[in-house]
Amino acid sequence: MRLLHTSDWHLGRALHRANLLVAQAEFIGHLVTTVREHAVDAVVVSGDVYDRAVPPLAAVELFDTALHRLADLGVPTVMISGNHDSARRLGVGAGLIGRAGIHLRTEPAAAGTPVVLHDTHGDVAFYGLPYLEPALVKDEFAVDKAGHEAVLGAAMDRVRADLATRSPGTRSVVLAHAFVTGGQASDSERDITVGGVAAVPAGVFDGVDYVALGHLHGCQTITERVRYSGSPLAYSFSEAGHRKSMWLVDLDADGSLTADRVDCPVPRPLARIRGTLDALLADPELTRHEEAWIEATLTDPARPADPMARLTARFPHTLSLVFDPERAPDDPHVSYARRLAGRSDHQIAQDFVAHVRGTGPDEHETAVLRDAFDAVRADDAVREVAR
């Protein structure tokens, strides 16, 4: 069976002030063409179909178009909700849509109930694990502690239990939306840290033939059988070096597989440039970036006059302007943002405690801080579900 694995469409998202809807529509067209030209047997979409719980109307219309075009191909599609989606909204009409071959899996309780497709070698069971917010699903999966590894492990126990009841030789595919250990993050993924731990080990998914992951926006291989497709478009300048693609996976009769990348259309390249304003305007090496979307970091010791206007005269698609004067690390004028770069909310809170009283939090206080951040995250998740 030949699978096309994609994820993280984020329909409705922009790149700074650049509207990406046309580029997203171009990707949908490319997806349909790929399915047709490569004789794909099934499409899997591993979450974050939309960029937010209540997407703009134009994004909903594009999704509707995508569903119709996929259904017209007669090729089954299995799709899960991600942490950006409203699972309830995405799952509306799932029963009816399923009759057209588009199988939406948004209910955690159905993790062990697969979509079963067939080829000349027998059955392939597709298990959809939507994004599992630990605080919201811990009771469903009867876990003592709300954590990503615990709830995903319990969901996979259901998958393996169901798979054990199926005929010998049944192959298996799991769709999941999670941060798996070894994956490389970018700036455009929403933080899903719970209890100080966001990542789960790849071993959680042992026992199935292929795991089609979503959440991280870079295409990457965790193990031969566990892969991220990444997002089809770049949604932050941290993705400037990404090669955006989908996985074309051939699942053989014995469960062995081969996987190849299919490149996605690039609406406009991204580039990060850094230096003084005068240097950026004069450097001949930067000519190749003049038509790219630009993030410019200015290192002038003082802010120059009209920097954006002067930059866009040479780089008309400049979207982001960052000021980062080159100073010694111990310079009192080093920006607050630079001092916080790379630190989590929990680490920042610990630093604040240490700054205020001269000593950092002890083990008990660290746990209190972590629980407080987890409670806020859980409250946000409940509000997202209720919207």
Automatic annotation (TrEMBL):
Function: SbcCD cleaves DNA hairpin structures. These structures can inhibit DNA replication and are intermediates in certain DNA recombination reactions. The complex acts as a 3'->5' double strand exonuclease that can open hairpins. It also has a 5' single-strand endonuclease activity.
Domain Nuclease SbcCD subunit D C-terminal: 267-355
GO BP annotations listed: DNA recombination; DNA replication
Taxonomic superkingdom: Bacteria
KW Nucleotide-binding (keyword) present: no
A Pfam cross-reference name: SbcD_C
Domain Calcineurin-like phosphoesterase: residue ranges: 1-218
Family: Belongs to the SbcD family.
Keywords: DNA recombination, DNA replication, Endonuclease, Exonuclease, Hydrolase, Nuclease
GO MF term (any one): 3'-5' exonuclease activity
Family annotation (InterPro entries): Calcineurin-like_PHP (IPR004843), DNA_Repair-Maintenance_Comp (IPR050535), Metallo-depent_PP-like (IPR029052), Mre11_N (IPR041796), SbcD (IPR004593), SbcD_C (IPR026843)
Keyword flag Nuclease: yes
Record text on subunit structure and interactions: Heterodimer of SbcC and SbcD.
UniProt protein name: Nuclease SbcCD subunit D
Organism listed in the record: Streptomyces dangxiongensis
